[in-house]
Amino acid sequence: MRLTYFRELMDGEFGPVRAASLARDHVFAELGGLTVDEALEKGYSPREVWLAVCRAYDVPPARR
Predict the structure, then answer these.
(1) SS3 36
(2) Beta-carbon neighbour count of residue 38 at 10 Å?
(3) Rg (CA), the chain
(4) Beta-carbon neighbour count of residue 56 at 10 Å?
(5) Would you write out the chain's pLDDT as a tens digit for each of its 64 residues?
(6) 43: alpha, beta or left, given left = phi > 0 and alpha = psi -120 to 50?
């Protein structure tokens, strides 16, 4: 998954404002206590991060 597609999925699921806030501010235990932005900067794959977000926010499997 490309980072641009990851951002499109985030915006589509949460809206652009909430997606940006979530990526910047929400700490995910599944990502080692990192935010989305921190995890991506540390080299986590966008797919791995997207799935962690989906599990944390109960995104239906059809939209994962």
Answers:
(1) helix
(2) 17
(3) 10
(4) 14
(5) 999 999 999 999 999 999 999 999 999 999 999 999 999 999 999 999 999 999 999 999 988 8
(6) left
CA separation for the pair 44, 46 (Å, rounded): 6
> Are 45 and 51 spatial neighbours (Cβ–Cβ below 8 Å)?
no
For 33, residues 6+ apart whose C-beta sits below 8 A from its C-beta are: 27
Give the pLDDT confidence score for residue 13 in this predicted structure. 97
Nearest of 60, 53, 3, 58 to residue 29 by alpha carbon: 53
Cα 29 to Cα 35: distance, rounded to the nearest angstrom: 9
Side chain identity, residue 40: L
Which residue(s) pair with 9 in the sheet? none
Helix (H, G, I), strand (E, B) or coil at 34: strand
